[in-house]
Amino acid sequence: MTTEGALARLIRSSADRTAAARTEVCDLCAAPVADEHAHLYDTGQEEVRCVCGPCSVLFAEAAAGDGHYRLVPRRRVRLPEVDTAALGVPVGLVFFVPRADGTVTAEGPSPAGAMRWEVDAAAWQELSGRCPQLATVEPEVEALLVNTVHGLDHHWIVPVDDCYRMVAVVRREWRGLSGGGRIWPAVEQFFEDLTERP
After folding, report:
1. Is 198 inside any structural domain?
2. Which of 12, 32, 154, 160 has the largest count of CB atoms under 10 Å?
3. How much is the average pLDDT of 118-122?
4. Do 134 and 82 contact (CB within 8 A), yes or no?
5. Do 120 and 47 share a structural domain?
6. Do residues 23 and 32 lie in contact, with contact meaning Cβ atoms separated by under 8 Å?
7. Predicted structure pTM score
8. How many separate domains does the chain show?
9. What percent of the chain shows pLDDT beyond 90?
C-alpha cells in the first residue's frame, strides 16, 4: 500500500460522505428524495419532515397515522390585501397558523429562527368572516403569509413549508443588528418567486 493510494482513497471517501450528507433523504424510510418533494408536518414535534413519494401516499388521508403526521398540501393562493392589524402582531413579515385545537399562532422570522406569538382566536374568526378564503386554511399545515415591510402588499395562503423556507432565507441573509443590506432584497425575491398553485 502506497501513501499516495491511501491519501487518494481518504480524499475520495471524504468527498463521498460530503455528497451523501448533501443528499436529502426521506425522514421515514431514508430513501433519497428529489429536489422537489413532499413534506409531512409532525404534530408532536411541530416540525416539517421530508418524505419520499411512496411514503407520502401513506398520509394522503388526514386520519392516517392517528394524525401524528399530516401531509403538507401544495396549494398557494394570492389574496387581496388582508387587514391583519386586529390580530395584534406588530411586525410586517409574519405567518399565521391556525391550530387543530382552535388556537392561532403568529410566527415571524428573526436571525435566531421563528419567533412565536399567540393570536386571539376570536380576532382570527372575525378576520375569516371578512376574508372567507381564510376559513379554508387547513389547520397546522397551511398559513396566511404576510409581507407588508417597506410598503409591500403580499398576502398568501401557503403550505407551512413555504413559511419555514422564508424563515431560512432571513437566517441565511441576516447581518449585524439590523439585518444588513442583503436581507430585504432576498425576502422580496422570495415573494416574487411565489406562484399560485391549486
Report:
1. no
2. 160
3. 96
4. yes
5. no
6. yes
7. 0.85
8. 2
9. 75
Q: Return the C-alpha torsion angle 109, 191, 95, 24, nearest 10.
A: -70
Return the amino acid letter for 11.
I
**Mean per-residue pLDDT, 162-171:** 95
Each residue's pLDDT tens digit, 38-74: 999 998 898 999 999 999 999 888 667 777 899 999 9
Percent of the chain with pLDDT over 70: 88
pLDDT averaged over every residue in the chain = 89
Tell me: the pLDDT tens digits for 4-46? 554 445 445 545 554 455 689 999 999 999 999 999 999 889 8
Cell of 90: 406588530
Say yes or no: 152 and 182 in one domain. yes
Counting other chains too, the contacts that 175-180 makes at CB distance below 8 Å and 24 or more residues apart are 179/111
In this structure, how many other beta carbons lie within 10 angstroms of the beta carbon of residue 188?
A: 15
Q: Closest Cα partner for 50 from 65, 33, 67?
A: 33
At how many degrees (to 10) do helices 183-193 and 160-173 cross?
160
Q: Which domain holds residue 58?
A: 4-72
